Each structure stands twice: as structure tokens, then as C-alpha cells.
Amino acid sequence: MKIIKHSSQTFPTVATGSIVGLDVRGTLEVTNSFPFPVVDVPAESHFEGVPQNAAASAPRAKSNALYQTEMIRMLREVNIDANNVGWYTSSNMGNFVNLNVIENQYHYQKELSERTVTLVHDVSRSSQGTLCLRAFRLSPQFMTAFKENKFTTEQLQKSNFRYQDIFVELPVQIHNSHLLTSYLHQLPASPPSEPLDLPPSLTALNEGRLASSFALTPNFDNLSLSIDPFLEKNCDLLLESIETHHTENNNFQYYQRSLAREQVKIAAWQAKRKAENMSRAQLKQPLLPEDEWQRLFKLPQEPSRLESMLNTRQVEQYSQQIDGFVAATTGKMFAVKGNILPGETQA
């Protein structure tokens, strides 16, 4: 409830915080949470040689760490579970696959414990009436690759690492606290507007089964053919991710063309130097070094494929959501196709 409240109050801004609990026989129990403070960093504050976004995140990370340590100390003083088991973040339509989430979760798994998790609360999807709370952890294979920063094409081919292997999703079970359960049981219920049916027999009453004439009453809301209201927004986000993926591919193709041009120049220089050394050998003159090309030519550096992998993982996330949005509606549209288009004959 704290995570939902914090995420809803700060929406559409991303809400982050720490989660505490216990690790009980292989099950991570999250029993409490508290939000991280908001640190305002002046726009002109930056460090020499450090990108502006990285410089801005440095004081935030330091402030969050100090605040988290102080909060955990206070929780321990009042005898509340104070073991840091991860952190939580909010998202909008599943847009949580980014480098910031990766770096934060990597820090938690590296510095605290490999069992720490990231809880992702999707505010937009939860507003439809179904709570969307998911738990993720970075895979050991990705932890090793991220530590060594090996995201080149050659390394990815050797390790057979795919974008599906970035996250490991864990099952989530939600339990109400005893206080909340007591409150729900004490909520007054409005009396029924229609008289209730009497039980047909004493046996049915003892078993708790009441005969209801409304058991098979059709629910006309299920016949609605309206498309999910978030489908259009999700499609827009999917198109943006596809455009980003196309841009990343263009950048990599540009690198490949630049590398090919330099390799042609190097091959031509080596052939020329080899022929020159053959002439000098015949004249019994000292040979020229053949590895001098490493100083004369500079090969372009291959861009990291991490951003492309994260974007591909985000595209998959959007595609799965769209599939879930239209699954129910598509079946109903096929069911009523004959009534909507009576003149159309089936093949």
C-alpha cells in the first residue's frame, strides 16, 4: 500500500524507494518500504570530465544511500524488520527497462546481496483495477557481462547472451497485514436491494451453499467490443522503441562501414610495405617495420550493444502488453463477425 500510494502521488514522475524484510528459507518477504528523498540538483552544477546526467545522479545516489542507512537504523531501534532486500520503482505502461534501473539493481546485487530484487509497480495498468506489481533480478550471466563491460558483437556471440537473459522475473504473492485484514472485515456493507433467496434445505445452509437464481445470469459487460483505453498509448510507445532500435542499427551500420574503409586502407598499406621490404631485401638494405600501421591508422571503436539490447527487451515488453490487451477483444470480435457483417460469406 505504501508503494502504491507513493507511486500514485508522484505520477507521472518516477517514484523510487527502499524495501526491507527478511529472507525466510529461500523466500524473500518484503514487510516494509520507505521512499527515497527528492534531491534538487542545480543545472549548473557539474564536475570536470563527467557527463551532466552522471554528475547530477552522483549527489542523488549519495543522498539516497545516507538516507537509507539512517532509516534502517531507526527501524532497527523500534524492532522492525530492517534488512535491505532491494528497492522499488514506478513505471508507466511498462517503461522500466532502461540503464538507470540496470545500474541501480546491479549496485544492490553487487554491494548488498545477489538475492535483492527490484519491485516494479505499473501505475497506468494498475489504474484499470488489477494491481500490476512485478519483481525482477539481474541474471548471473548479465552481472558478469556488465561487470566486465563486454557488450561487443564478438563477446555476445561467444557467450550466446540474448536480451531475454537480462532479467529474471520472480513470482510475487501479496499478503495483507493483520491490521488491514481487520479493517476490511469491519467495513460496513450496504444491505441488498432485492430480497435474498432462502436456502432450499438445511444441508445446503450448513454447507454454506445458497441457491441463487442469478448464478447463470449473463453479464452484458463481457460482450463489449471496446478496445482497451491504454492500447493506443502502448502502440505509440512501441513505435518510439522501434524507431530507437532503427537508430541504433543505423549507428552500428555506420561503424561497420567506417571499420571496413579503415581495414581496406590498412591492407593497402601493408601490401605496399611488404613490396617495399622485398625490394630492400634484394638490395640488402635494412627492412622497415611492418607493424607501423598501428600507429598510423586508428580503428573506430565499436559502440556498446547494451543500449540496443535494453531497447529490444523494452520492445518485447510492449509487445506482450499489447497482446494481453487485445486477446480478449479479438476473440469476441470473431464471435460476432457474422452478426456485424451478415452479407459476408465464410470461406
Describe this structure in words.
By secondary structure, the protein is an alpha+beta fold. It has helices at 2-10, 52-77, 99-111, 123-126, 140-148, 153-159, 178-186, 202-207, 231-282, 293-296, 306-335, 337-340; strands at 16-24, 27-35, 83-91, 117-122, 133-138, 167-170. It folds into 2 domains: 1-37 and 54-176, Cytidine Deaminase, domain 2 (3-Layer(aba) Sandwich); 227-338. Helix content is 50%, strand content 12%. Helix 9 runs antiparallel to helix 11 (306-335). It is elongated, with a radius of gyration of 30 Å.
> Describe the biggest sheet?
6 strands, mixed
| Helix amount | 40-55%
CATH topology of the largest domain: Cytidine Deaminase, domain 2
Tally of separate helices: 12
Strand order of the largest sheet: 2-1-3-4-5-6
pLDDT averaged residue by residue: 76
How far apart are the first and last residues' alpha carbons, in Å?
Answer: 53 Å
By CATH reckoning, the class of the largest domain would read Alpha Beta
* CATH H-level superfamily of the largest domain: Cytidine Deaminase, domain 2
The count of domains is 2
Which CATH-level-2 architecture of the largest domain?
3-Layer(aba) Sandwich
| Class per helix and strand makeup | alpha+beta
Unreliable stretches (pLDDT < 50, length at least 5) are 41-59, 210-216
- Using the alpha-carbon principal axes, give the shape: elongated
Order of helices and strands: HEEHEHEHEHHEHHHHHH
Strand content: 5-15%
Q: How many whole angstroms does the radius of gyration measure?
A: 30 Å
Task: Write the SSE topology.
Elements: H1 2-10, E1 16-24, E2 27-35, H2 52-77, E3 83-91, H3 99-111, E4 117-122, H4 123-126, E5 133-138, H5 140-148, H6 153-159, E6 167-170, H7 178-186, H8 202-207, H9 231-282, H10 293-296, H11 306-335, H12 337-340
Parallel strand pairs: 3-4
Antiparallel strand pairs: 1-2, 1-3, 4-5, 5-6
GO biological process, one term: formation of cytoplasmic translation initiation complex
Domain MPN: 1-142
Subcellular location: Cytoplasm
